[in-house]
Design goal:
Length: 145
């Protein structure tokens, strides 16, 4: 009898020179994009420390999944910078080349969040969105800090 399939939603960082990689894994492509967004927040502060007070709608279109990931992360970086917010919860829907999402967060509280760095942008370095051997999806890229 085969072992049951356990869905895994994870995020992590990976080293890349002076910058940092963000990686998300999930049972669907959209879930992997959510985990990559959590990894993005994790570069700045613990996503668990961000309260879901305000919802922001985001939409992106791109010619490929890889570019869609970079556009998604850059849209989050833009919203964080212009609204002076952090996001810690996300719902993402992907339909072909179109992504719609809701990001929940709150204004940055320097004392409570202790922001580590400011992210300048998501890059095409190590950019990948791909299915994995275990029926999960990978979404990753390097962000410029």
């Amino acid at each position: 009898m085969a072992a049951p399939v356990v869905a895994r939603n994870t995020w992590e960082h990976f080293a890349h020179g002076a910058d940092i990689g963000v990686r998300g894994v999930g049972p669907t492509k959209a879930d992997a994009f959510v985990q990559a967004a959590l990894a993005l927040t994790g570069v700045i502060t613990s996503p668990a420390a961000v309260r879901p007070i305000t919802a922001i709608q985001i939409a992106c279109d791109a010619p490929s999944d890889d570019v869609l990931l970079a556009d998604w992360l850059n849209a989050l970086i833009y919203e964080m910078a212009t609204r002076r917010m952090l996001f810690g919860a996300f719902i993402v829907s992907i339909d072909g080349s179109h992504l719609t999402a809701t990001a929940w967060g709150e204004p940055v509280d320097p004392v409570r969040h202790e922001p580590a760095v400011e992210i300048k942008g998501a890059t095409y370095t190590a950019l990948a969105v791909a299915p994995l051997d275990d029926d999960h999806w990978l979404a990753q890229c390097v962000v410029d800090v």
